[in-house]
Amino acid sequence: MSTDRRDGVNRGLAPRTYGQGERPPRGDYARARQDFTCEQRWQDYTPAEHALYERLYARQLAQLQGLACPEFIDAVEQLGSPTHIPRLDTVSSRLERTSGWRLVGAPGLIPEEAFFALLAQRRFPVTDWMRRPEEFDYVVEPDIFHDLFGHVPLLFNPTFADYMQAYGMGGLKAARLGACELLARLYWYTVEFGLINTPAGLRAYGAGLLSSAGELHHAIVDPAPQRLAFQLERLMRTRYRIDRYQASYFVIDSFQQLFEATALDFAPLYERVRSLPALEADSILPDERHYAAARRCLSTSVITPG
Ligand code: PHE
Ligand code: FE
């Protein structure tokens, strides 16, 4: 995409995405402001779209117990009525009181620098369109259900909220260093597909998992994927796929650990990672610490060092 100017100013163009996938981004970028935010046209949602939201919400809510981290479960009701697509302004005022974050509308995925700039200001862009009924089970790109249900509950958590802002500031720096692709892997394997080890067993905190019908269960319970202890350099070397269930997940012990492990200066890390070969999403290396899949219906799970 040689026409994709990467300065975070809207020219009506869809952004670059890094993960390996087959489709161009979707959304009407011409109606966005210079900073890529846009009005949420709440009146324009159809009854069928509200009903679809209600069905998605009910299905996800029903499977949170034993799969989602407790911080998420505690905050999910802050989204308000489960029967209608929420107004961003309403959720935003609750969020602002709790963690100082605000929600802003967006036409879809936005260019990295525009995205980082918003996060650095504690503003989270929420895609305003709803998936189509035939995408009930799987949508490649984030829609309003993914962005709200998946991302917003954890923004009520003070430590995670601070991590997201630090990520935004780190993104602006990565853009100067030409390292956005490497930093994007951190977002992918934490904010989108992260797992956390709790006293009750492995749980999901990543938004891509929490908003997914099938992958939430896959990530926690299925024996197929590997679950690696969070290790920043290993993670940053690992490519990802945006159009299928993940082959590898990374497990943190706490949001505090995540915040502290990412506080160092990434400039030397980017250099080191660039000097090493990238790893495929399903790469298996010797001597890594693995977590076993959680066993369904048990309140504890066993950690097996690999
Ligand atoms: N510490 C990172 C840097 O120096 C910034 C960052 C913080 C990135 C948290 C991601 C998450 O670039
Ligand atoms: Fe997301």
Brief account:
The chain has 306 residues and is of the alpha/beta class. The protein has helices spanning 47-62, 70-75, 88-99, 112-120, 144-155, 158-177, 180-192, 207-210, 215-221, 232-236, 255-261, 266-275; strands at 102-106, 123-127, 195-198, 201-204, 226-229, 248-252. The chain is globular and about 55 Å long.
Report on this structure.
- This protein is of the alpha/beta class.
- The chain has one domain: Orthogonal Bundle (Phenylalanine Hydroxylase).
- Helix content is 40%, strand content 9%.
- It contains twelve helices and six strands.
- A four-stranded mixed beta sheet has the order 4-3-6-5. The protein has a two-stranded parallel ribbon with strand order 1-2.
- α4 crosses α6 and α6 packs parallel to α11.
- The protein is globular, with a radius of gyration of 18 Å.
- The chain starts with 46 loop residues before the first helix and ends in a 31-residue tail after the last helix.
- Mean pLDDT is 91; it is low at 1-5 and 298-306.
- Bound molecules: phenylalanine and fe (iii) ion.
- Residues 142, 146, 150-151, 192, 207-208 line the site of fe (iii) ion (FE).
- Fe (iii) ion (FE) is lined by residues 142, 146, 150-151, 192, 207-208.
